[in-house]
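FAQ

Q: What does a record look like?
A: Structure on top, sequence underneath. For example:
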């Protein structure tokens, strides 16, 4: 299982974690939604569940649920600023297509 984060994503995740000292880590996964089938979820996790796997990525605990693992394997998480907008951006080798708005993706 491989997930990596860029330096800018690392910095942003550390900022979130510093603001919430009780958080167990950053939750990364997918949910069924959107016009292409799946959307990414990035949030702070209060705890890690029995079906979660925790990865220490460059000092940041990233928690992924078992159902999301095969869909996000190999993903690079980046954080980008464009004008007034800032967001996490995902480079997922498993994604075979994305919707026009870029909010959801599909897999083979």
């Amino acid at each position: 299982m491989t997930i990596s984060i860029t330096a800018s994503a690392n910095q942003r995740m550390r900022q979130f974690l510093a603001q919430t000292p009780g958080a167990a880590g950053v939750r990364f996964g997918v949910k069924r939604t959107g016009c292409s089938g799946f959307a990414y979820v990035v949030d702070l996790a209060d705890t890690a569940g029995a079906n979660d796997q925790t990865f220490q990525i460059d000092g940041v605990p990233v928690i992924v649920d078992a159902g999301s693992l095969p869909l996000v394997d190999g993903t690079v998480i980046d954080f980008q600023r464009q004008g007034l907008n800032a967001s996490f951006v995902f480079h997922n080798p498993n994604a075979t297509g994305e919707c026009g708005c870029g909010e959801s993706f599909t897999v083979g």
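Q: Is there anything notable about this one?
A: The chain has two helices and nine strands.
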